């Protein structure tokens, strides 16, 4: 199998200088590829790990008093104001300082002459542009950043970028939209998809009317059928929810540019695909099937599986050969 995408290879000089990772190990991987990048760790400062952040020149997104105290203590110990961002919770109840802690955070940082690199928060309902919570969070965020004049601010995720300039501030943090996924409910993403995924056909076989396909015998063939057995399954992030049964459509793939349905249950390592409609234009074993690409979009897969594009992309894990395409110099 091959996952082909166009994020930066090692020799790529990015136009973007600021990167956000969830975890510190992800940040270390980015640092190895991009020595001059500004890298923020969204999950914050892991207890006892301050020296690693300093060595790797990583910026924790600090979201609690305990994190702040540990980071400031490291700055005092080394007599250097190491950069970090501050995250305030404006209504999502995930990571972030409570709003009533803003004055304490301001006092602590001013007392030590510590200037954060960025003040941030996160929108809960930006994928629903008319949701009242968006305006409430915007107002609360504006009240927070007024305590930190001159410090860059960041609120907008992918959907927030599309919500309008009021949400942009000095830095935006687009995610799924950059990969071609839908960020706003009911709105097509104007950004191009950059991920394609292909899996190999392992066998072509003829199946007869009345026979069943896959575990559980959940689908009975109503006609003479040509099946392509494809080397991908739920161990590769091809969800079991894309299975089909008699009377229920599942997912689909593209074979030689034609949309072909998945037949029966998705197995750990295999799927069966109905290629009967291809007629005599049959593929051969070893030929690639499009799982994601120009004919099968991220959100096509997400909709068929009853999930979101974010999960489709993050499910693509270790068993793929990855090829990075595009400018490398």
Question: What does this entry look like structurally?
Answer:
There is one protein chain. The protein starts with a strand and ends in a 5-residue tail after the last strand. The radius of gyration is 24 Å and the shape is elongated. Strand 6, helix 5 (132-145) and strand 7 (153-154) form a beta-alpha-beta unit. Strands 1, 8, 9, 10, 11, 12, 13 and 14 form an 8-stranded mixed sheet that branches. The chain has a 6-stranded parallel sheet with strand order 2-3-4-5-6-7, covered by helices on one side. The chain is built from 8 helices and 14 strands. The protein has 2 domains: 8-179, Alanine racemase (TIM Barrel), CATH 3.20.20; 196-324, Lyase, Ornithine Decarboxylase, Chain A, domain 1. The longest helix has 14 residues, at 65-78. With 329 residues, it is α/β, with parallel strands linked by helices. It has helices spanning 24-33, 50-56, 65-78, 102-111, 132-145, 158-162, 298-305, 309-314, and strands spanning 2-5, 18-21, 38-41, 59-62, 85-87, 118-120, 153-154, 196-207, 225-230, 252-255, 258-263, 271-274, 288-292, 321-324. Substrate binds at residues 94, 268. One of its GO terms (molecular function) is alanine racemase activity. This is Alanine racemase. It holds the Pfam family Ala_racemase_C. Keywords: Isomerase, Pyridoxal phosphate.
């Amino acid at each position: 199998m091959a996952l082909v995408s166009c994020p930066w290879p090692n020799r790529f000089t990015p136009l973007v200088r600021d990167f956000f990772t969830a975890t510190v190990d992800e940040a270390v991987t980015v640092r190895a590829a991009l020595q001059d990048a500004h890298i923020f760790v969204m999950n914050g400062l892991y207890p006892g790990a301050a020296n690693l952040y300093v060595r790797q020149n990583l910026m924790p997104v600090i979201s609690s008093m305990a994190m702040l105290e540990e980071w400031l203590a490291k700055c005092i110990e080394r007599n250097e104001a190491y950069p970090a961002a501050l995250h305030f919770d404006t209504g999502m109840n995930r990571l972030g300082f409570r709003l009533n802690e803003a004055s304490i955070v301001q006092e602590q940082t001013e007392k030590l002459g510590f200037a954060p690199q960025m003040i941030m928060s996160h929108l809960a309902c930006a994928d629903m542009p008319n949701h009242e919570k968006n305006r409430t969070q915007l107002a609360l965020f504006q009240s927070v950043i007024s305590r930190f004049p001159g410090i860059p601010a960041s609120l907008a995720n992918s959907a927030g970028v599309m919500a309008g300039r009021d949400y942009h501030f000095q830095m935006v943090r687009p995610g799924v939209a950059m990969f071609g996924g839908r960020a706003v409910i009911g709105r097509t993403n104007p950004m191009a998809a950059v991920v394609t995924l292909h899996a190999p056909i392992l066998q072509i076989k003829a199946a007869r009317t009345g026979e069943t396909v896959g575990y559980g015998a959940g689908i009975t063939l109503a006609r003479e059928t040509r099946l392509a057995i494809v080397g991908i399954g739920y161990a590769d992030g091809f969800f079991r929810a894309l299975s089909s049964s008699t009377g229920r459509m599942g997912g689909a793939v593209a074979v030689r540019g034609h949309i072909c349905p998945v037949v029966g249950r998705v197995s750990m390592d295999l799927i069966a695909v109905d290629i009967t409609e291809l007629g005599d234009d049959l593929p051969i074993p070893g030929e690639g099937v499009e799982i994601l690409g120009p004919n099968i979009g991220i959100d096509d897969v997400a909709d068929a599986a009853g999930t979101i594009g974010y999960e489709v992309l993050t499910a693509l894990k270790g068993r793929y050969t990855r090829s990075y395409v595009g400018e490398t110099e």
